[in-house]
C-alpha cells in the first residue's frame, strides 16, 4: 500500500491535460462484447478500473491489447462464455455492464454482483426490471445474477423509476442487438451515456435520443468493427478546477468539454473563483477568498455526485457557512471525519453536510475512503498548512491517470511512498 506525503500551501500554475473518461471507458469496453470484429478504442485512461475490465474481458476469451498511448485494440469474435464470476468481477462496479453485454450477445448471462466504491446500498433493481421487460428471466442467487431468455432479447418500453446511469447504460447495451424497438423513459443524460450511444452507433447500432430523457434503440442484427475515441473525463477536469481554486494560482485545464462542466464552473464562480471558458479548455484563477455556497448533487445536468467530496473540501475553508446535500447516494460523507482531522468544521445530518468555513486546514495523517473522497483529501492536503500523509491510494489509482505527475507539473508538492508493513 502506498501513501502520499503532501506539503501544502503552494499555489498551482501552468497547464494540465485531462485524460479520457473513466466512466465512459468502462461502459464502452464492456459493450464491445457485442462487436464480433476488431474495435480500436482511443483515449482510454490507463487506470486500475480499466486494467481490471480488460483482464475480465481476456478471461472471457477476448483478444485485448492496450497500448501505452491509451489505445485499446480488441476483438471479441472468439468470446466463448456467458459466465463472468471471477474475483475480479466482484471487485468492480462496472462489471455489471457485462450483464447487458452478454445478454445481448448470447441471450444469457451469469455475472457476479458488483463491488466498487461503498456509498451504502447499490441496488440493481432497475437494471433487472429492464432486462425482464425485454424477455429475460432473472434471479439473484449466491452473489450472482443469472439471466436467461428463450429466444434472445426483445425490444420493449422501460420506464426508469429512478434516474440511473448504470441501468440506462446496461439496458441500452442489452437492447442494441435485441429484436425490435426498446424505449427507455426517464433515462440518465450523463455525458458517458451519450458517449456509449455514439460508440455503438459508430459500430452500426441504431440509437436515438441519448442525452435526453427518452432513448430509442432499434435493434440491429450485427455490429461491425471500427475506431472510436472516448470523451475527456468530466470528473477529472472538475477535480483539477477545484484543486486550482483551492490552492490559488492560475491553471489552464486542457482537453475538456466545457458544457459538461457547467454545473461545476457555475458553483466555482459563485465561490469567487475566476473561470474563463475556451473551445476545449478552461482557465481557472483565484486570488481572493473562497466564499460560501450551497450545493445539491443531482443527475446530469445537475451537480455531479462524483464532485461532492472535492467541493466540500474546498468549502471547508470558505468564508461563511455552506450546505451540501447529497441527493444521489445515501451514505457518501464517510470522508468528512478525515477532513475534520485537518481542522474542518463540518456536521453531517442525513443527506446534508453543514460546513462552517475555517480560515485554513492543517496537515494531518488521513486516509482515502473511496475514489473521489481520496481526490478530496488530496486537495485538502494541498491547501493545508504543513504536511499531510494520505493513505489508501488504491482508491485514487482506480480512477485518476498519472494524478501525482499531473499535479506536480502544476507545482504541487507531493511524493508517493511505500507504507511500512
Ligand atoms: C452514479 C452517478 C454517476 C457516478 C457514479 C459513481 C448519478 C445519476 N449517477 O452512477 O454519475 O459516476 O454514481 O459515483 O448521479 N438506483 C436504484 N436502482 C438501480 C440503480 C440505481 O435505486 O437499479 C439508485 C442508486 O441507489 C442511486 C441512484 O439510483 O441512489 C443513482 O444510481 P446510478 O446512477 O445507477 O449509479 P451509478 O451508475 O453508479
Helix tally?
A: 14
> Helical proportion?
25-40%
- Give the DSSP E fraction (strand runs of 2 or more residues): 25-35%
Low-confidence stretches: none
Mean pLDDT: 96
User: By helix and strand content, what is the structural category?
Assistant: alpha/beta
Major sheet: order of its strands? 22-23-1-24
Query: Which descriptor suits the 3D outline?
Result: globular
Bound chemical compounds: uridine-diphosphate-N-acetylglucosamine
Biggest sheet record: 4 strands, mixed
Taking all Cα atoms into account, the compactness measure Rg is: 21 Å
- The beta-strand count equals 24
Question: How far from one another are the termini?
Answer: 9 Å
Task: Kindly describe this structure.
With 421 residues, the protein is of the alpha/beta class. It is built from 14 helices and 24 strands. The protein has helices at residues 22-31, 48-59, 87-91, 97-106, 125-133, 165-176, 191-202, 234-247, 262-270, 308-315, 336-341, 371-383, 394-399, 403-409, and strands at residues 2-7, 12-17, 38-42, 63-66, 72-75, 83-84, 108-112, 137-141, 144-148, 157-159, 181-185, 206-208, 214-218, 226-229, 249-254, 274-277, 281-286, 295-296, 321-325, 345-349, 352-356, 365-367, 387-391, 413-418. A hairpin with a 5-residue loop joins strand 4 and strand 5. The longest helix is centred in the middle third of the chain and has 14 residues, at 234-247. The protein starts with a strand and ends with a strand. Uridine-diphosphate-N-acetylglucosamine (UD1) binds at residues 23, 93, 123-127, 162-167, 188, 190, 299, 304-306, 328-329.
